Amino acid sequence: MLEESVVHKAVSVKVSSGVLYNCTTVRKNALLKAINKRLLSEIPGIIAANKIDLENAEKAGISKVLIDRLVLDEKRIRQMVEGVKDVIKLPDPVGKIFGRIKRPNGLVIQKMRVPLGAVGIIYEARPNVTIDASVLCLKSGNAVMLKGGSEALHSNKALVAIMKLALKDAGLPAGCVEFIDTIEREAVAVMLKQDKYLDVIIPRGSQQLIRYIQGNSSVPVIAHGEGNCHVFVDASANLKKAEDIVYNAKVQRPSVCNAAEKLLVHKKVASKFLPKAAERLRQAGVEIRGDETAVSIVPSIKPANDSDWYKEYLDLIIAVKIVENLDEAIQHINLFGSHHSDAIVTGTKSHSERFLREVDSAAVYSNASTRFTDGFEFGLGAEIGISTQKLHARGPMGLVELTSTKFVIHGKGNIRK
Amino acid sequence: MLEESVVHKAVSVKVSSGVLYNCTTVRKNALLKAINKRLLSEIPGIIAANKIDLENAEKAGISKVLIDRLVLDEKRIRQMVEGVKDVIKLPDPVGKIFGRIKRPNGLVIQKMRVPLGAVGIIYEARPNVTIDASVLCLKSGNAVMLKGGSEALHSNKALVAIMKLALKDAGLPAGCVEFIDTIEREAVAVMLKQDKYLDVIIPRGSQQLIRYIQGNSSVPVIAHGEGNCHVFVDASANLKKAEDIVYNAKVQRPSVCNAAEKLLVHKKVASKFLPKAAERLRQAGVEIRGDETAVSIVPSIKPANDSDWYKEYLDLIIAVKIVENLDEAIQHINLFGSHHSDAIVTGTKSHSERFLREVDSAAVYSNASTRFTDGFEFGLGAEIGISTQKLHARGPMGLVELTSTKFVIHGKGNIRK
Question: Is the whole model's pTM more than 0.90, yes or no?
Answer without folding.
Answer: yes
